[in-house]
Amino acid sequence: MKTIEKIEQSFTDNVKEYVEQVYATVKKRNPHESEFHQAVKEVFDSLVPVLAKNPHYIKQAILERIVEPERVISFRVPWVDDQGNVQVNRGFRVQFNSAIGPYKGGLRFHPSVNASIIKFLGFEQIYKNSLTGQPIGGGKGGADFDPKGKSDAEIMRFTQSFMSELSKYIGPDIDVPAGDIGVGAREIGYMFGQYKKMRGGFEAGVLTGKGLGYGGSLARTEATGYGTVYFVEEMLKDQNLSFKGSTVVVSGSGNVSIYAIEKAMQLGAKVLACSDSTGYVYDKNGIDLSTVKRLKEVENKRISEYVNEHPEAHYVEGCSGIWTIPCDIALPCATQNEIDAHSAELLVSNGVKAIGEGANMPSTLEAVEIFLKNKVLFAPAKAANAGGVSVSALEMAQNSARLAWTFEEVDAKLHDIMKNIYNESMKAAQEYGAPGNLVVGANIAGFVKVADAMIAQGII
Ligand code: NDP
């Protein structure tokens, strides 16, 4: 090895050591937060070449600062159920980073919600929002409330109580929440009403994912699912592949899954299976989307009921079995860590060509490694599912300008944004010595813009 190469290598080794030290501190300071650790590790592992090339990020302690949320809010959410009993849940809002814009990120209502889950989601959101090219910072929130089996009146009482507290910390130029698991148009509507009542004014830009009649944007419902498929389409195109004639498996049957299925079908794919948290359906003729939409969007039923109308399909209890189905393209669109090493091995041995993460962090670190090692095309969540927050930012822009764009206008902008995220991520991967690796590329492209803005704004 030449002397100059030796010096460079030893500098890179020092940077690696520094990154590991910061990561060790994150683990120590945030004990028992395994999802947050996992999200930090994935980003940090990508950043070594950027830090080696830009030592001022180290001097400015960007890593130490970026892993510390600007603010963590945790609050009591008391409400009364239909039997007159008082119930208490825990609410969260993590305002992670506002270097490039007001905090922006969804609210999740699910019994598994805790500080670790909200922090991992908020941390991911920083880079995702940066990748969209829109002026939005990173945040996330939610509650350990289980909407399943609750009446409409209970949902309303809970969301009103939740917003009574959250309203103190948000605003169109401060923090703009949206939906996520368990939070759709109905919940956003109740929260918007409560916010309006408490503030005494119609501030449309305080929440996104609103109904169309009061400031919502066309194509927001479709945005995350469509965006994921647009992103994967670009990735496939580069390898002379396409959705046309491909078989696809999509996990979940919620907002992201339904519109990923719809767009994949429009592009000529056959979607063989989808799921919910109790099991999956496999339909060799291709999933009938109108049945799934009615069961899930209108009747609020379990996916198992699909087979009552399509006897040729099979229902199987347990959701991880969905990854045993051979397919060309897998789109995990349900929840975090739904593809572990075992499922990843199965997908690879069954010949999967591409993975597109519609959900946040649906693959474990080991699963990602298996995909990359086996040259499976891999679209990581923070790039692939950025379509939802992109159209949320377009909703904010329409609210500010008091305009409403057509579906076609918003969809065209979404498509352009997803192509741009793909190109920027590929470019960053190439520039930093990991050609084709979109995990590295997305992390770096998202990070650099935020780091530079943090430096420009001083030590705050
Ligand atoms: P929804 O609540 O609309 O749907 C979630 C779906 O996933 C449901 O079908 C649910 O089933 C299923 N699910 C939940 N847990 C599991 C599990 N352990 N195994 C299998 N299926 C499960 O949520 P969204 O579609 O909005 O969100 C899905 C994912 O996409 C999340 O990771 C979210 O963070 C991410 N995301 C969402 C965005 C959006 O715009 N909505 C934007 C970017 C990312 P069940 O009904 O039984 O609970």
Please explain how this structure is put together.
- Homohexamer.
- Belongs to the Glu/Leu/Phe/Val dehydrogenases family.
- The model has no long low-confidence stretch (mean pLDDT 97).
- By secondary structure, the chain is an alpha/beta fold.
- The longest helix is centred in the N-terminal third of the chain and has 27 residues, at 3-29.
- Helices cover 50% and strands 15% of the residues.
- The strands form two sheets. The chain has a seven-stranded mixed β-sheet with strand order 9-8-7-6-10-11-12, sandwiched between helices. A five-stranded mixed β-sheet has the order 1-2-4-3-5.
- The protein has helices at residues 3-29, 34-53, 56-59, 62-66, 115-131, 152-166, 185-199, 220-237, 255-266, 289-298, 306-309, 341-349, 365-373, 381-384, 387-401, 407-431, 438-456; strands spanning 71-80, 86-97, 103-109, 137-143, 175-178, 247-250, 270-275, 279-282, 314-317, 329-331, 354-356, 377-379.
- It has three domains: 2-67; 71-202, Rossmann fold; 222-384, Rossmann fold.
- Helix 8 (220-237) crosses helix 16 (407-431) and helix 12 (341-349) packs parallel to helix 13 (365-373).
- NADPH dihydro-nicotinamide-adenine-dinucleotide phosphate is lined by residues 179-182, 224, 251-257, 275-278, 319, 333-335, 338, 358-360, 385, 388.
- NADPH dihydro-nicotinamide-adenine-dinucleotide phosphate (NDP) is lined by residues 179-182, 224, 251-257, 275-278, 319, 333-335, 338, 358-360, 385, 388.
